[in-house]
């Protein structure tokens, strides 16, 4: 069980890291961003980015990761989907402690 929880934390950190790290360009406190992406985030085109606009980019990337795990597209990740994800990524389910 401890290994599964450790892997779950690792998977969450990896997804979050991919979401934030996939934006190339200037880096600020670990979050990279190209200035050209400002217009992508400024959804109401007022020349300013609100927190909701800023965070939407990360939420979209996290949603994509979730959707990849949710193979039956029911909006939930069940045990079989999670186990398949672990198997594909080399986690040995037979050695849980």
Word description of this protein:
With 97 residues, the chain is mainly alpha-helical. The protein has a domain at 39-91. It has 4 helices and 2 strands, in the order αββααα. The chain has helices at residues 2-21, 38-41, 51-69, 79-88; strands spanning 26-28, 31-33. A two-stranded antiparallel ribbon has the order 1-2. A hairpin with a 2-residue loop joins strand 1 and strand 2 (31-33). Helix 1 packs across helix 3. The longest helix has 20 residues, at 2-21. It is elongated. The model is unreliable at 22-30 (pLDDT under 50).
Descriptive labels:
about 5% strand; 4 helices; two-stranded antiparallel sheet; elongated; 2 strands; mainly alpha; about 100 residues
Query: In sequence order, what are the helices and strands, one letter per element?
Result: HEEHHH
Rounded mean pLDDT score = 76
Helix content: 40-55%
Low-confidence stretches: 22-30
Strand order of the largest sheet: 1-2
Q: Major beta sheet, specifics?
A: 2 strands, antiparallel
Strand percentage, roughly? 5-15%
Summarize, please:
55% of the residues lie in helices and 6% in strands. By secondary structure, it is mainly alpha-helical.
Q: What is the fold's blueprint, element by element?
A:
Elements (H helix, E strand, L loop, with lengths): L1 H20 L4 E3 L2 E3 L4 H4 L9 H19 L9 H10 L9
Antiparallel strand pairs: 1-2
Helix pairs in contact: 1-3
């Amino acid at each position: 069980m401890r290994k599964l929880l450790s892997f779950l934390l690792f998977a969450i950190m990896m997804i979050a890291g991919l979401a934030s790290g996939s934006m190339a360009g200037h880096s600020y406190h670990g979050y990279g961003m190209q200035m050209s992406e400002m217009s992508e985030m400024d959804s109401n085109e007022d020349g300013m980015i609100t927190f909701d606009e800023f965070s939407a980019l990360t939420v979209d990337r996290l949603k994509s990761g979730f959707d990849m795990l949710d193979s039956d597209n029911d909006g939930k990740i069940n045990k079989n989907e999670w186990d398949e994800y672990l198997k594909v990524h080399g986690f040995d389910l037979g050695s849980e402690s």
